[in-house]
Design brief:
Keywords: Membrane, Transmembrane, Transmembrane helix. The chain is an alpha+beta fold and about 170 residues long. About 60% of the residues lie in helices and about 10% in strands.
Length: about 170
């Protein structure tokens, strides 16, 4: 005896797990984005922090409301992946160097610095020389956050394109 019932995508366990994951990621992104805006827009990088918070909050809303904004899955996946990789790689061009009393730090990455090298020495000249010769270290949490930011930026581009296509139709 065989069961010939067709499997509906909306009733499978994997679909339910995907909806739960999308909901959790959307809720965390929305709350995280709004919290980021509230806590960081009073600092010296207010425009950058506001942009990061808005991207996370808007992406959270998109993930929480798939019934309002239906995105083509394949196109959204491709664009999000490409923008995440390209944005994170382009962020390496942003160079930030800081020198303290006897420390020298070189950081790269945008909007979050995720690659750095540094050194501490008895004087600033030796600290800079040692830092430039040191190995790069990677902060995986900041790298993941940067990748997520750029993926969300790509998703926002797909949302804008989809809304423009709807308006023309």
């Amino acid at each position: 005896m065989t069961d010939t019932t067709a499997i509906d995508e909306k009733t499978t366990r994997w679909a339910a797990a995907g909806r739960l994951a999308r909901w959790l990621l959307g809720a965390l992104s929305l709350v995280g984005g709004l919290t980021w805006i509230l806590f960081t827009t009073h600092g010296p990088t207010a425009v950058l922090d506001l942009t990061v918070g808005v991207v996370f909050a808007a992406a959270g809303l998109v993930l929480l409301m798939p019934h309002r904004i239906r995105l083509p899955r394949l196109i959204a996946t491709i664009v999000m992946t490409m923008v995440a990789i390209a944005g994170t790689a382009a962020g390496l061009a942003v160079d930030n160097e800081r020198a303290g009393s006897y420390a020298y730090v070189i950081e790269r990455g945008f909007p979050f610095t995720w690659v750095q090298r540094y050194a501490v020495a008895d004087n600033p000249v030796d600290a800079e020389r040692l830092a430039r010769a040191a190995h790069w270290t990677v902060d995986l949490v900041s790298l993941g956050t940067s990748l997520l930011f750029w993926a969300y930026a790509g998703m926002m581009l797909v949302v804008i394109a989809e809304l423009a296509r709807r308006r023309r139709a």
